[in-house]
Amino acid sequence: MKKFLNGPWVLLLPTVIVLACVVFLPLLISLWTSFTPFKLTRPDTLYKFVGFRNYERLFGNYDFWVAFGRTVLFLTIALNLELVFGLGIALLINKITYAQKTLRTLMMFPMMFSPILVGFQWKYIFNDNIGLLNNFLREFGISPKPWLVDTFLANMSIMAAEIWSSTSVFAILLLAGLMGIPKDPIEAAKVDGCNSWQVFKNITLPFLMPFIFIAMTIRSLDVARAYDIVQMMTGGGPAKRTELLWTLISRTGYVDAKMGLANAMSYISIFLSIAFTFFFFYKLMEARKILSYD
Amino acid sequence: MLRLFLSLIFAASLFGTVSVKAETELWGDYNGVTLRVKLIGGGQYENLYNEVIPWWEENTGGKIEIVTQKNHFELDKEIKKDIASGNLDFCVASNHTSFAAQYGSIYTDLNGIMPASVLADYTPLILEHSTVDGRLVQMPRHSDVSSLYYQKSLYEDADNKANFKAKYGYDLTPPDTWDQVKDQSIFFSNPPDFYGTQYVGKEEAIAGRFYELVVANGGALFDEDYRPIFNSDAGIESLEWFIDLYNAKAVPEGVLNYLWDDTGLGFASGTIAMNLDWAGWAGFFNDPENSKVAGDIGLIRAPMGSGGLRTGWSGSHTFSMTESCPNKDAAASFMWALTSNKAQMIEARGGLSPTRPAIWDAIIAEKEAEGDEFMLMVFETFKQSLSLDAFTPPLIPEWIEFTNVLYPELQAAILGDKTPEQALETASKKATEIMEDAGYF
């Protein structure tokens, strides 16, 4: 006991206690509730164990799996587009020598809006009757589009709002990466006759890859913030055409008050987050090996 | 009833120039008492708090601490979370007759707390709707029912009259049935610039609109045992009304994402001929600063369905008191103040429908005295709608959960993803599951 009290465990204890309270305990409680028929409005149901019943229901729930698949697709497309746009913006800003700091600040403006506000703004822009975009189209004699109704357009509209809101995260992280790239290899390559594309492909991009995967990992975990945007713009509708896991889980848990079932959905969807995170960390390690960081 | 006293006021209270029938007041000395309250927020609701809270604090010595002020759907989520965590550390909360049944027994039965003479000042039917399992858990603030707003000039236009008569064989007058609404909507529509009508298209909103049309068409959502019976001729007829208007482009294409703000702003934009909406929008619609149809608005009771009934989905905004409230007398006094004659006159002047018969008389007299013909029409129409047409949704805890399985199916049918029969069949199966799980049968 004395050895324990004098050892490093004592110093780690506060951290362990805090982590247990704010991370592990809530996770354990929510895991428990996923094995109960817990309803928010009936707290006594928290103590009724029903085994895997919620999970069994979900495995046969067509709506849940469609929302799951749509979320994977949404994540894949949105994150890749954010990467492409973010990289483009970072490369452009990195080239600028005048007012770069001002532009960097301006670039961060979309991040400063709360997702709810972003959802409101874009809902208004895409409103079919009084929205800015359709009024703009009418001015040029183009027939207005059902932006938030048609399956393809509605998903693209939500994605546009999400990309507008979050591309700057990629841009900032990649700009930091670009600023940290040593100049020597780039100058040597230019002396050896490499053109700009060859420099970008063979030197800049490999140096940026760790930053890209760090940005991807952060965004893949953080992208659920888009819930507010989707909720404001379509609420997952119409007719579930834009239903993502986040809107489905939120409605099940907080509106229908079926928190047990909602937590079972969350635990299944956690595997999605783990898969994305694992993939990006694996790619990050590979990129660091190439650069001999490790 | 410590520290609580009643004072019957026999002299008429004066509000502006119009006298209001006497009421039973519920003041007390609550010096040192602080009431924590959770209130519905938003422009049209907050005037009441700005006036009544200082008034109550001045008269009682008590203090009001607003813990939360947010829209009703967010407030609903917060209260559900409070129930789950057992953290009911507030005394008074905004509530709604459609929501109240969900909250179990967290709210106090006011029958033993509010004196009968106070309760006698409210419309008895509304108090009945505020009762859950025999317990009066709400004090009604204002009531909602929809009436049909329309652009008057469209009906006065000679060309419109002649063309409509030639096409449909009957005179163009403000519609008395939902079939006429459909005809006239299609007639007036000129998409994408102008639409005959619109409807709220998602969540509880479209489920409620569907519900009232089913009733107006002679059907019902549930039988006596709460088995779903809306997959019926009346149900299909009702759903087809929504579908026909959508397919005819007589409503905006994005209507399935619309909620109340969207339909209100749409009618005010001047691009909608007819709009079934709540009383609270009347002032906004007739304000030239906000509305392109100001000065050109007619209003009639909601039209009839094929069953001979008018649509009358109705509910009341209310206040409830928690069982855990440490000072129920003070809370009762505050709830009385929030729904008193003074409070209801403040809200009525904004266009909201009172829950006290005396205020109906007073506001109509006030508008007559002011010569405000528009608001006079609004109050007279909504008074009729509330007294003749209004009916609540089933006041059961499962109402919101039920609407969440119904509305995606209605949307799927409207968009053509499913036939009306398929959509109602699926919704009916899911609703049956909910009712079975809840133990109704």
Task: Provide an overview of this structure.
The complex is a heterodimer of chains A (294) and B (441). Chain A is mainly alpha-helical and 294 residues long. Chain A has helices at residues 2-6, 8-33, 53-59, 62-95, 100-107, 109-112, 115-126, 132-139, 151-180, 183-191, 196-222, 226-233, 245-255, 259-290. Chain A has one domain (59-290): MetI-like (MetI-like fold, Orthogonal Bundle), CATH 1.10.3720.10. Chain A starts with a helix and ends with a helix. Chain B has 441 residues and is an alpha+beta fold. Chain B folds into 2 domains: 7-144 and 315-383, D-Maltodextrin-Binding Protein, domain 2 (3-Layer(aba) Sandwich), CATH 3.40.190.10; 147-313 and 398-437, D-Maltodextrin-Binding Protein, domain 2 (3-Layer(aba) Sandwich), CATH 3.40.190.10. In chain B, the strands form 5 sheets. A 6-stranded mixed sheet of chain B has the order 6-5-7-14-10-15, sandwiched between helices. Chains A and B meet through helix 13 of A and helix 2, helix 10 and helix 16 of B.
Helix and strand topology:
The complex is a heterodimer of chains A (294) and B (441).
Chain A: H1 2-6, H2 8-33, H3 53-59, H4 62-95, H5 100-107, H6 109-112, H7 115-126, H8 132-139, H9 151-180, H10 183-191, H11 196-222, H12 226-233, H13 245-255, H14 259-290
Chain B: E1 7-8, E2 13-15, E3 18-20, E4 24-25, E5 34-40, H1 43-60, E6 63-70, H2 72-85, E7 92-96, H3 116-119, H4 124-129, E8 131-132, E9 135-136, E10 139-144, E11 147-151, H5 152-156, H6 158-168, H7 178-188, H8 203-216, H9 233-247, H10 260-268, E12 274-277, H11 282-285, E13 297-301, E14 315-321, H12 328-338, H13 341-349, E15 353-354, H14 357-370, H15 373-389, H16 399-414, H17 420-437
Parallel strand pairs in B: 5-6, 5-7
Antiparallel strand pairs in B: 1-4, 2-3, 7-14, 8-9, 10-14, 10-15, 11-12, 11-13
